[in-house]
């Protein structure tokens, strides 16, 4: 504001001088315009990308683990490569998986630089459009004229403060987009890690169950050959083994596909793939569920609500900027000609205005579109706030259900199946039950462990989904356990 006042004072002083002279000197106009331009340039917006990244690094809800670094040169890239090498030297935990993605993934680096492009273009919108300089040379008899004509868009200059305000909003929007995109990338990796570990664990359980059923089917075959078992009983045992074989094949494929999902998100290649090792077990179920009150924040600080609010404010600011241009456009031209008439030098100065006359197009449709866009963005902002509250309630209900089920399997079903197996072993040793009853008890226990694993996996994904809703970046999990963004990438491939 102070700079604009100074510029205005300069122009007013020049106008006073012109009045005293009794005429308007075009040189004063030129100086005033150029001064206003130079002052405006000082206040141009700029995108503080590094500052935004540092803020995100300090927000544990966004980054979760590791540090975001945009590798702009070979030195920074070497730092990231060394970090990745050290992480791959050990079994990859969930937090280390996030850190490895931040250090290694080319897709993540692309995301950072795309945001830098977005922010730079947003800042560019506040810049003054360059003036147009026209040069001409004309000869008429002995007279040679050198013409210099400088053209400015007055509407562009008049709307500069509004455009700077719009650019500031656009820069804030770019910052929110950066937070949102980083959180999505981190969440995708966490989901992929959960799926890979769960698939690894499931494969081990199914493999053990298949080994037991294979022994049972082989025993049944030999007993049938000895005449100690009916054909129906033998076929039933073989069918159980066949079903387990199919489950094992499916578990093996799931193990491979989830591992590849994780590899793609981490950005691994070559021998890095062979060095990748994930735990064989998921993290333990917490003793107590998350408290809803601890997750509820000011909805105005949610990423989706912040983005919707900025979109609405941008539409309002854009309305003020573009409304003027729907009526007319004005350009100011400053002329300074040098005339050489057979050695006699003279100078001709002046100015001209170029005004667009709204004869055929009054801009009413454009203004209607601008106003309608404002109303649409306002409604979207209001709806986003409504959706935020609803999403949190639904996500927490799903989480609590998953928590209770997983706890029930851990504290009730699996221990009871272990007790039944122990009793089966005792009765078998006492010759109360046969070998098939013992083997079936082992299969039942393995089946209970598989269901317990699925319940734990669902709980951990529900927990991740709940946190994503609380922060304002809901994660849509597909039936195969991938986030919606990862599933879309798979379809494209």
Brief rundown of the structure:
Helix content is 70%, strand content 9%. It has helices at residues 2-21, 26-42, 49-57, 60-63, 74-88, 94-104, 106-124, 154-158, 160-225, 231-266, 271-275, 292-295, 303-325, 364-429, 435-471, 484-492; strands spanning 132-140, 143-153, 330-341, 344-355.
What secondary-structure arrangement, pairings included, does this model have?
Blueprint: H1 2-21, H2 26-42, H3 49-57, H4 60-63, H5 74-88, H6 94-104, H7 106-124, E1 132-140, E2 143-153, H8 154-158, H9 160-225, H10 231-266, H11 271-275, H12 292-295, H13 303-325, E3 330-341, E4 344-355, H14 364-429, H15 435-471, H16 484-492
Antiparallel strand pairs: 1-2, 2-3, 3-4
Helix pairs in contact: 1-2, 5-6, 6-9, 7-9, 9-10, 9-13, 9-15, 13-14, 14-15
Overview of this protein structure:
- With 493 residues, the protein is of the alpha+beta class.
- It has one domain (44-492): Up-down Bundle (Outer membrane efflux proteins (OEP)).
- The chain has 16 helices and 4 strands.
- The chain has helices spanning 2-21, 26-42, 49-57, 60-63, 74-88, 94-104, 106-124, 154-158, 160-225, 231-266, 271-275, 292-295, 303-325, 364-429, 435-471, 484-492, and strands at residues 132-140, 143-153, 330-341, 344-355.
- The longest helix is centred in the middle third of the chain and has 66 residues, at 160-225.
- The chain is elongated, with a radius of gyration of 36 Å.
- 31% of the residues are buried.
């Amino acid at each position: 504001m102070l700079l604009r006042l100074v510029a205005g004072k300069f122009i007013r002083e020049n106008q006073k001088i012109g009045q005293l002279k009794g005429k308007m000197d075009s040189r004063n106009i030129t100086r005033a315009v150029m001064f206003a331009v130079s002052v405006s340039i000082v206040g141009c917006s700029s995108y503080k990308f590094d500052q935004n990244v540092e803020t995100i690094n300090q927000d544990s809800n966004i980054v979760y683990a590791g540090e975001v670094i945009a590798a702009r040169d070979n030195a920074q890239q070497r730092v990231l490569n060394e970090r990745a090498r050290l992480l791959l030297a050990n079994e990859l935990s969930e937090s280390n998986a996030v850190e490895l993605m931040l250090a290694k993934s080319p897709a993540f680096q692309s995301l950072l630089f795309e945001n830098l492009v977005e922010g730079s273009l947003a800042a560019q919108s506040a810049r003054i459009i360059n003036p147009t300089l026209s040069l001409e040379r004309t000869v008429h008899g002995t007279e040679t004229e050198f013409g210099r004509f400088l053209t400015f868009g007055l509407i562009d200059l008049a709307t500069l403060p509004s455009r700077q305000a719009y650019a500031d909003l656009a820069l804030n929007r770019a910052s929110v987009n950066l937070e949102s995109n980083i959180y999505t990338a981190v969440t995708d990796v966490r989901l992929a890690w959960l799926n890979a570990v769960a698939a690894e664990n499931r494969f081990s359980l199914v493999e053990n169950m298949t080994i037991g059923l294979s022994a049972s089917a082989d025993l049944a075959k030999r007993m049938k050959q000895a005449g100690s078992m009916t054909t129906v009983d033998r076929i039933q045992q073989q069918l159980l083994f066949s079903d387990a074989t199919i489950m094992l094949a499916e578990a093996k494929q799931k193990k491979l596909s989830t591992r590849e999902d994780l590899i793609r998100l981490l950005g691994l290649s070559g021998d890095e793939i062979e060095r990748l090792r994930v735990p064989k077990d998921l993290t333990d179920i917490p003793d107590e569920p998350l408290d809803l009150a601890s997750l509820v924040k000011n909805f105005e600080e949610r990423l989706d609500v912040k983005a919707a609010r900025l979109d609405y404010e941008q539409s309002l600011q854009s309305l003020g900027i573009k409304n003027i241009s729907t009526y007319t456009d004005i350009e100011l031209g400053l002329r300074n000609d040098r005339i050489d008439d057979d050695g006699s030098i003279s100078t001709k100065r002046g100015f001209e205005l170029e005004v667009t006359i709204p004869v055929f197009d009054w801009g009413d449709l454009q203004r209607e579109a601008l106003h309608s866009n404002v109303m649409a963005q306002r409604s979207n902002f209001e709806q986003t706030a409504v959706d935020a509250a609803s999403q949190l309630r639904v996500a927490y209900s799903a989480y609590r259900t998953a928590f209770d089920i997983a706890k029930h399997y851990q504290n009730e079903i699996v221990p009871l199946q272990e007790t039944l197996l122990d009793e089966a072993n005792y009765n078998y040793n006492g010759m109360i039950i046969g070998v098939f009853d013992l083997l079936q008890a082992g299969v039942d226990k393995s089946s209970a462990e598989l269901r317990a694993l699925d319940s734990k996996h669902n709980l951990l994904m529900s927990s991740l989904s709940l946190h994503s809703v609380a922060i304002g970046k809901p994660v849509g999990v597909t039936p195969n356990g991938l986030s919606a963004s990862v599933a879309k990438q798979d379809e494209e491939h």
